[in-house]
Every structure is written in C-alpha cells, then in structure tokens.
Amino acid sequence: MAATKHALVAMVADKPGVLNRIASLFRRRGFNIESIAVGHSEMPKVSRMTIVVDGATTQVEQVRKQLEKVVDVIKVIDVTGEGTIIRELAIIKVKTTTANRSEIIQIVDIFRANIVDVSSDSVAIEVTGDEEKVNSLYKLLRGFGIIEIARTGVIAMTRGGAGSSMINKKQPKSRTRNKKKE
Amino acid sequence: MKLTGAQIVCESLVKEGVEVIFGILGGVILPLYDTLPQYPQLRHILVRHEQGAAHAAEGYAKATGKVGVCFATSGPGATNLVTGIADACLDSVPLVAITGQVIRPLIGKDAFQEIDITGITLPITKHNYLALDAASLAETIKESFYLARTGRPGPVLIDLPKDVQTSQAEFNYPNKVNLPGYKPTLKGHPAQIKKAARLINEAKQPIILAGRGVNISGAYDELKHLAEEAQIPVVTTLLGISTFPESHALSYGWLGMHGMAYANMAIDAADLVIAIGMRFDDRATGRVSGFAPNAKIIHIDIDPAEIGKNVRVDVPIVGDVKVVLKELNKLITKTEHIDWIGQLDEWRREHPSILIRDCDEILPQYIVRQIYKITKGDAIIVTGVGQHQMWAAQHYFFDKPNSLITSGSLGTMGFELPAAMGAKVGRPDETVWCIAGDGGFQMTLQELATIAKEKIAVKIAVFNNGFLGMVRQWQDLFYGKRYVATHLNCPDFVKIAEAYCIPGLTVKHKKEVTPAIEKAMEEPGPFLINFMVEPEENVYPMVPPGASLAEVMEEPKKGVAKWQRQSTP
Ligand SMILES: Cc1ncc(C[n+]2csc(CCOP(=O)(O)OP(=O)(O)O)c2C)c(N)n1
Ligand SMILES: [Mg+2]
Known about the structure:
A: Alpha-Beta Plaits; B: Rossmann fold; 3 domains; 6-stranded parallel β-sheet; disordered C terminus
C-alpha cells in the first residue's frame, strides 16, 4: 500500500444495519474510503472489517475514533506498518487471441496468478496479493484489453503470534491480547 | 408471568424511574397508550405537536439531568420528532424516543404511515433500535437508557412495531447491560493528568474554558476549586453558562460570536487554555486557525472523538470531567496570577461589552436585566434562538448551577416554549422564564394548549421586534441592509394566549416593563408578556463569521461589509 494509506481493522457486532451505520458515518463526515471488506471473524456474532483510508486526504485517527463511537463497533485498530499481512483478491477478465494467449499465460505465471476460466476470446485471471501486485498485473494486462475486473478490497492481519482477537473480554482464556496501540 | 410488549415497555420505564412522558398517539402506538392507565406512576403529557414532545423531553432532561422520554406514532409522528432528536444529539441531551411502527409483516412494504425512522435518525441518534421481538424488549430499553445517560449523553430511539406491543413475552428486567462496543472512559490517564498539572502550574496566563460537560458531570465544585486554587480566570462557552458563578471574581463571561469582548481577548492572549467538557464549536472558537494562537491547550472530554477534531491539543485527557478534575486538583499548587488577572480586569473595564445604553425605547437587554433583578437571579431561563437568546445569555447573571437552557448547537428556533414547559415539569419548584423570539415563538406556540391544560406555570416573555431579528442583523451588517424576508407580521400574542386561557399583557413603554414582570411573577399559573421592543437593535459584541476572536466588533460600524461571508446564522 502507498505510504499514506492506512488499514483499519474493525471488529463489529454482526447485527442488521451495522454496515449502514458505518457507511452513513463515512458519508456524513466526508471520510474518503478506498476500500472496505467484510466477513466473519473467529468469534461468533462478530464480523471483521478491513477499511482502507488514505491518510493524505482523511484524518485517520478521526476515522478510527468516530468508528469506535458507533455502539455496534467493538474495537478498531490501525494495523498499518511493517508487521501487517495485506491481501486482496482480484479477478481480471482479459480479451485474448490465439496469438497472444501464451504471452498472457507467461505473465500470469510470473505473478503466481491463476487462470480460472478460458473461452475462445477471453481468459479470467485470479490474483491474490497486496494492492501493488494486483495493480501491476492489471497494468500489464491492460494492453490486451480488459473486459472486466472485480476486486475484493484488501484484508489485513498483523504478523506473528499476537492475538487475532482485539476484544479484551469474554474471549477464550488462551488468547493473547494485541497490545499494539491499546 | 408473561406480559405484552406494551406492558414490558411500561414496566421498564417504571424501573428506569421515568416520571413523565411527552407524546402524541396514533394508530400503531395505540396498544402502548392503551396500557398506560395500568401505570399511573407514568404521567403522560399530551403535547400538540411531536416536535414539542421532543423539545419538552429535552427541557426536562436539561433541567433535571434525568433521561427525557417522548412517544410518537409512526410516519409523520416519528418524522415530527426529528428536529428535537437532532437538537438533543448535538447538545448531548439524554433522551429516549419511542415511536410506533407498522406491524412486522408490513415493514418494507410502504404500508400506510410506514417510514424508516431508524434510517432517518441514524446520524442524529447516539444509537437506535428497531425492536423486532417482545422477548428482547426489556434488554433494548435497558440499553437505551444506559446509552442515553452515560458517557457523552445523547438521544436513543426505539422503533416499536404494533404487533410487538401486543405479543407476549416473559418480563425480566436485566440489571446489567451487555454492550462490548460501548465502554466510556471515566478515569483520565494519570500520566496525562500529571502533564496537565505541570502545564497549569507553570502557566503565566492560563484560562479555563468550561463547557456543558461540566454541567453534565456535575463538576461545579471541582471547577471552582481548580479556578480558586490556582487563581485561573474562567470563561465559558454558551452551553457552559451557569457552570461557574458569573458573579465570581474569576468569572470572565463567555466566549464566541456574541460573547464578551474581554473573554475573547483573554482567550487570544492566554498561554494555556484548559478546555473542560467542550468541543470547540466554530461559533465559540471563531476562525479556528486564529484560535488561542499563543496557548498550549489541555482538552478534557469524555468523548475521545472530540480530541483533536477541531483544534490541535497539547494534552488530551479523555474522561468524565468530574472524575478527572478531582484527580487533577490534587496536583495543583496554590498560585497567583496577579498581573494576568489585572490585565483581564483592565480589558473588562475598557470593553465592558454588556452596558445598556440609556434610552426611552424598550431595549431587549433592559428586559433581561429587569427579569434578573426581579427573580434575583433565582430562575431557570429557557430561550429560543436568535438575538433574544444572546441578550438573555449576556444580560442575565447566571450564578445558579444549570440555570440556562438553550439550543446551543442545532440552534433550533421554536425550542423555547416546549423546552420551558419540560423544564418546569421537571423542576416544578423553580421559576421558569421562557424568553422567546416572536419568530421562534410562532413555530411552536401550539404548546400553549398543553401548558394551559396541564397548568404548567411558565412565564413567557416574547421579545416582539417584528423581525427574524438575528438574520435581519446579518442583512444589516453584511448584506447592505437589504431586509429580504425577515419582516414578521406578528399576531396579537396576548389575544392568542387568552384564546388558550393564559393571561397576558402587552408592554409598549419602558416604565411598564418592571410592573409587567412583577405581575407575571405574582400569577400562580402561566403568564405571557408581549414586549414591543426596539425593532432594529443589534447584538454586540460580535465576532464576524470567519473572523478570529481577536477581531471582535464592539460598536456598530460602517463598512463592516468586508466581513461578508457565505455562512448562515
Ligand atoms: C428552525 C429554524 N429556522 C431558521 C433558523 C435561522 N434563524 C436563526 S435566528 C433567526 C431569527 C429568529 O427570530 P426570532 O425568533 O424572532 O428571534 P430574534 O432574533 O428576533 O430575537 C432565524 C430565522 C433557525 N435558527 N431555526
Ligand atoms: Mg424577532
């Protein structure tokens, strides 16, 4: 991710309307969101969101605090930095001809991406990696003609054995706490 | 034993110590209203417009510190509450609003009077609920009151479908809430408190800036202790008025757009601002880049998101104001700031800001002074929004804790009458004066009916200047005196009051002002005075929109058009 970008991980109650509350907050405060990805967490009834904001245009600490004010948001941590695994998945559908198909396959191999669908005049490529990797692959493929692209938005996790859970209480005993920024 | 959803609501309200509910019923909230007679301890006051219900609940909450409660039906009933809910949200007022909703199978079908009120109020509530089953209703209500009253208080809305009101469930009122995402910090960080104490002990020109948070946490004594011990002058925000006695030697009025010139000058010159329970609203700070240019800033507030939001802060302390001040006070060394205080006193002598010129016309400022004299400062003053609000805030001397109730953040015209009504219901032994603008009064005057019916003894002073005065002032100063759409054709307010069986009189001459106020005070019930005031009087001092506090204007000057900005009052 670009130096100014921050990944915020938010643990939120899995309740109807939570996404709405968060989206409404971003809109109303004029926060510029680069991407948002939501899924289950390791805890029941708790979802995990990864939100990427650009620190150059948005006050990241304000975003974090305002998010934490939402009652259904349990905890928000800025996980930006060295010790963070950042991944995004994209599916890119590219125009192909018999002439250029092998060239495309080569690029796919270099990027350790996968071809997940082939037709007479197109291929669909699945790629996983950080944003830069997805972006560079996209740039290389652009010359062939992109039909469509779908990106999940990034998800993030800190490296090492430090606890995945950021909820202090009511968690199975063995979990270590993430002390960073607490 | 199983209870209906409606009974669960009432039982829960009783458990929360609710004494009064302001509301208006309708089709989908009928089951709840039908249950009310089983709970005579819950007094229901039928208002005449739901906006009145919300403002009355706010007035009640601001006057008592307890949670205000209002009811409305679905659709238009619910949307009529919106202004009051927004007002409560911005002024941090604890409020629980319960709205009826269409039956569950009809939700999302655009049924008659169905509106997505949880969606509408999402950005103007602290939290809200669509209560979808009777079994979790008690928990929802428990959480609502807890959220409304704790931390930074605010409004919570519960949308309650009609069939949830009639379905049955076991009633067990939880004694604890389970809200993992909500844990307000009460205790300040000791290291931060130490840092703050060091700054305070070293400061040469410190100033305390007290806001409504002092009032909410009831930290009057702690604030006074800090000010007296370290001899720190105190300036308040508009909503901080009455957190520190204005007759105290260390009180230097309030700051901001219409605050005292010397208060603004003091902030500008200070080397340390100790901001307590306030949030640096732009009406208070003036142009933010020019705010307290020479000062370090300590910011104590319970809401972490307020720290650093509007101004840079050197020492943030997140916590309850009272708890933090108690700790902080232990570390403060007795000091004197003779030169600094001498300087402020000199500025106060040179720029008195609240002198009233001698003239034959009835000046609004003069009326406020007379009300102050006659009530001996022992009243709760509730205002609308506009010039009269500023004059009330400037010319009444607020010594009594929590004695000014005003819409400081949303600036809601029409707040005055219903809020005064709610305040009087909450504090029946207090004298409550409603200082109303002739414009704002006409926005909610239907509550005269409620006041008459419920015999709520508020004293109403309508400042009849025939204008939407504050906007007229801006037109006068910044728009070449072009009075577009600010003239009001006022009806005879005394006749209107009489139509509601409320006695009143019109005052046209200065010499009648005092007797009229005395008469109002002698009346056992509500009373209205229609004061025909000087129509084109302007409020001064004034920090023009977009200017910094140091650029405060004191006299009506020609050529102020250079301040012309796009902002609205
Ligand atoms: C509901 C609402 N509408 C419009 C405004 C904009 N506004 C601010 S002050 C004001 C004039 C208020 O007039 P009045 O109540 O007569 O008080 P005055 O300023 O004359 O004392 C207006 C229109 C507002 N604050 N609230
Ligand atoms: Mg007026």
